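Onboarding guide, step 5: your first structure request.
Type a short instruction followed by the sequence, for example:

Predict the 3D structure of this protein.
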Amino acid sequence: MTPSPPLGTTLGTTLGTTGAETLLTRFAAAVEANDAAALAACFTPDGIYDDYFFGPEQGPEGIAHILAGFYKGGCDFRWQFHDVLAGPGRAYARYRFSYRSTAPEAAGARVCFDGIACLDLSPDGLIRRYSEVFDRGMALAQQNFAPERIARIGRRYAEALKARGDWVGHL
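The system replies with structure tokens like these:
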């Protein structure tokens, strides 16, 4: 049996994976620099950024809106993508994300979580749609939100998920 490579390494390097790694490096740098134009440049003109907290936004203005939301609630962002896998039209990556929360309850706490990003890519290597999954509850709990508030937010996300047509067979 072949041992798994250490965390943080890329599983196989292909032209697609290398391009996706470069794209995600630009993506993370743009977020860390609060550079909406550079972040939007990672997307097609009608690209969609489906943020797991803020929901989907489309086009450069929508992407700028998401980034503004980040910086409304935090500062000192750090984003590292790793274990990138890519093929024609699609890429996945694990990530580590952290920031200093500016929410009053958080008292400047550093919020840290890991997640998985899914990218639908155009033929020219730009992002058509970015989506992600991570543990929202863990991110909220690190900000000292009241348990009732975390539960209310979690229920709202669960209701929205169950309302999507692609979940009909699970209900």
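Each response can be followed by summary notes, for example: Residues 15-32 form the longest helix (18 residues).
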